[in-house]
């Protein structure tokens, strides 16, 4: 009970001191406010990016590999430009020879206008894909079905449309079996994809799937096809990569000493690059936050030393009436922690406003623990930089302190 009373008394004296010097306290918290705002805003951006990337990259699949003309993160572009393109027949050869592949699908893309009657959309992404694409990329449909083998083999002009295309062209629904004009060619709608949302400001539902053969015949006769291959399990992805490399080298008739003239890419490459980017953001944010908190903490220490000097007689009187050293130290430590805690709370509020503004073009997330972390971290900084002033106050001799009156 005595401890609770001491804490309450210390808080009361601290808040009274802060109320009597509002402007000074507000200016003192600026450094803490900037530091906490930086830390919290950085954490909300990273958490938001992590959540968005995990959700959006899931369509790539954790156990899928992409055979391509290009290395996604290669730097020898002069050599890659000279590589031969891949055709859809390579996907058939991989499917026939691979023992570790659960599904294989070619894919290529372009952009075109699509229209239904008077409704017209421009710059819609048109994907030419195979039947297995629904499995390799975990395609989810809201309505209808995906292409079957016969439709792909016969280059049927059928299509599956994205949720945004369905909403904008068919406001009252009923998209199935309608004839959609894609770049001047009529395709029958057989399915509507489930909504996927936006990613880095890009609408992920603004697309049309068509069979790869129809795509090459109608849109890109010299299309450079990529091939997505899904492993039977995530444990076999590494083995699948070696198998694909062997199959591709046989298809390309490469000698033992000749380098690959194709690329095999995976989601792990994107995630590695992503981690490097977020690691740099973390490092930059930590440095900025450390400098801000250091400056803010020094400001807190300075203002607390001034406070101790101004209240020397008060300290002397309290000690003369029997207050222990730790009670004097406790009072100034609480005052320092409260100043920083208020600055931390304001910093969290500012970070929240910033995150809401940024959320329109960059995904952010602010769970409750981030709010608590920001305030508690600021209070800890206040306690750390308040140790020296509070110790100095606690060591004052009551006689000397009262003499200064």
Summed over residues and divided by their number, the pLDDT gives a mean of: 85
Main β-sheet, spatial strand arrangement: 2-3-10-5-7-6
Structural class: alpha+beta
| Number of strand segments | 12
Number of helices: 15
Roughly how many Å is the radius of gyration?
Answer: 32 Å
| Overall 3D form | elongated
Written as H for each helix and E for each strand, in order along the chain, the element string is: HHHEHHEEHEHEHEEEEEHEHEHHHHH
Distance between the termini: 34 Å
- Unreliable parts: none
| Strand percentage | 15-25%
Mind describing the biggest β-sheet?
6 strands, mixed, barrel
Instruction: Please bin the fraction of helical residues.
Output: 55-70%
Which features characterize this protein?
15 helices, two-stranded antiparallel ribbon, alpha+beta, six-stranded mixed barrel, 405 residues, 18% strand
How would you characterize this protein structure?
- This protein is α+β, with helices and mostly antiparallel strands.
- Helices cover 56% and strands 18% of the residues.
- The strands form two sheets. It has a six-stranded mixed β-barrel with strand order 2-3-10-5-7-6.
- Strand 2 and strand 3 form a beta hairpin.
- Helix 13 (325-358) packs antiparallel against helix 14 (368-394).
- It is elongated and about 100 Å long.
- The mean pLDDT is 85.
């Amino acid at each position: 009970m005595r401890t609770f009373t001491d804490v309450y008394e210390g808080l009361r004296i601290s808040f009274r001191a802060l109320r009597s010097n509002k402007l000074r306290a507000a200016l003192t918290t600026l450094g803490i406010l900037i530091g906490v705002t930086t830390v919290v805003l950085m954490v909300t951006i990273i958490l938001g990016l992590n959540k968005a990337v995990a959700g959006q990259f899931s369509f790539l699949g954790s156990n899928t590999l992409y055979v391509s003309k290009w290395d996604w993160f290669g730097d020898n572009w002069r050599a890659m430009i000279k590589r031969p393109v891949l055709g859809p027949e390579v996907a058939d050869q991989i499917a026939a020879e691979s023992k570790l592949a659960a599904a294989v699908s070619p894919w290529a893309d372009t952009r075109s206008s699509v229209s239904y009657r008077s409704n017209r959309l421009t710059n819609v992404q048109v994907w030419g894909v195979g039947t297995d694409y629904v499995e390799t990329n975990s395609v989810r449909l809201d309505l209808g079905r995906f292409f079957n083998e016969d439709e792909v083999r016969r280059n049927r002009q059928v299509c599956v449309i994205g949720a945004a295309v369905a909403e904008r062209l068919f406001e009252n629904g009923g998209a199935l079996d309608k004839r959609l004009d894609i770049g001047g060619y009529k395709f029958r709608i057989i399915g509507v994809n489930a909504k996927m949302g936006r990613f880095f400001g890009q609408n992920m539902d603004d697309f049309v799937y068509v069979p790869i053969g129809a795509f090459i015949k109608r849109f890109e006769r010299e299309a450079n096809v990529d091939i997505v291959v899904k492993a039977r399990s995530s444990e076999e992805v590494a083995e699948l990569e070696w198998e694909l490399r062997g199959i591709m080298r046989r298809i390309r008739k490469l000698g033992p000493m000749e380098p690959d003239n194709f690329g095999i890419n995976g989601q792990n490459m994107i995630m590695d690059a992503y981690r490097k980017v977020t690691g740099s953001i973390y490092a930059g944010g930590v440095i900025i936050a450390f400098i801000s908190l250091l400056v803010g903490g020094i400001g807190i220490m300075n203002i607390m030393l001034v406070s101790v000097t101004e209240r020397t007689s008060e300290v002397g009187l309290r000690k003369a009436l029997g207050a222990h050293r730790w009670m004097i130290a406790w009072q100034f430590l609480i005052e320092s922690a409260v100043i920083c805690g208020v600055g931390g709370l304001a910093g969290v509020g500012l970070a929240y406003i910033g995150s809401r503004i940024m959320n329109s073009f960059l995904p952010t997330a602010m769970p409750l623990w981030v709010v608590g972390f920001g305030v508690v971290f600021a209070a800890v900084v206040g306690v750390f930089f308040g140790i020296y002033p509070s110790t100095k106050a606690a060591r004052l001799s009551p006689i000397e302190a009262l003499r200064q009156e």
